[in-house]
Amino acid sequence: MNIEFKDKVVIVTGAAHGFGRAMSRSFSELGASVWGCDILVDELQETQQLCRDAGGNCEVAEVDIRDRDAVFRFVDGVIARDRTVHILVNNAGGPLGQFGKPLEEVSQAEWDIIFEVNTRGSFYFAQAVAPSMKAQQYGRIVNISSGAGLGTSLTGIQAYASAKAGQIGLTRQLAAELGEWQITVNTIAPGFVLSNPDALEQYRRFGEERQQALVNSLSLRRVGDPQDIANGALFLASDYASWITGTVLSIDGGR
Ligand SMILES: NC(=O)c1ccc[n+]([C@@H]2O[C@H](COP(=O)([O-])OP(=O)(O)OC[C@H]3O[C@@H](n4cnc5c(N)ncnc54)[C@H](O)[C@@H]3O)[C@@H](O)[C@H]2O)c1
Questions:
Q1: CA Rg, the chain, in Å?
Q2: Is 138 a catalytic residue?
Q3: What average pLDDT does the segment 15-35 reach?
Q4: Chain-centre distance of CA 170, in angstroms?
Q5: pTM
């Protein structure tokens, strides 16, 4: 199998580090014109440099995906320069520095922000790219949800498990709506990957015994790497996945 994205225009949200950085680098190495966005400007520029060092083409911009106008401005800018968008990876998200606590102690603001970033931002981006995907009768949307959206979250954060389940519902609904334009919409549900400060802190809080139990609970006996998740996104965005839509691909080392 030889996957390539020559002449494809790809947007990756949350491109500043973790999965988004690995995806941006991989897509650009495979020939795509990559547009990465995030709220972390310095780290975004590091991602851009990594892509360029790998011989790829990557532009970056500061976009808060909670801001609908900013999302549409960014997508309009991509289309103004590259004429269209072929692939969207809704990756930005996470527990945003929160840790699990009893539900009685969760504030409305804590609940809301998790939804704004993990679910609503994906909706805004899908809205913004849909017209150009429809016009070209081709599109790939890959939403990065979580194993938390299929079961329970190791973080213990109620809003995170709910928002990630919501992203899976959004995937199924958009797949049904957009299929007639040959736009596929799929989700990846990653397992635990030590790719960001929240995950590292969560892992530290587990302590040695629970860390070992976590690794032992995985069929493949190792925690994941950002590239493991990026590889799934490459496949779902490729022509090899042209008859796959509305699905959830678990990439979690096996449970
Ligand atoms: N790491 C894991 O174990 C794991 C497991 C399951 C799912 N996920 C999901 O995978 C995705 C990527 O996770 P990661 O581990 O690479 O985390 P990460 O923190 O490295 O990357 C997430 C990126 O999203 C960006 N972001 C946050 N809020 C934003 C906003 N309002 N606007 C724009 N960008 C914003 C962050 O700045 C960050 O760069 C997330 O959606 C996360 O929920 C991660």
A1: 17
A2: no
A3: 97
A4: 14
A5: 0.97
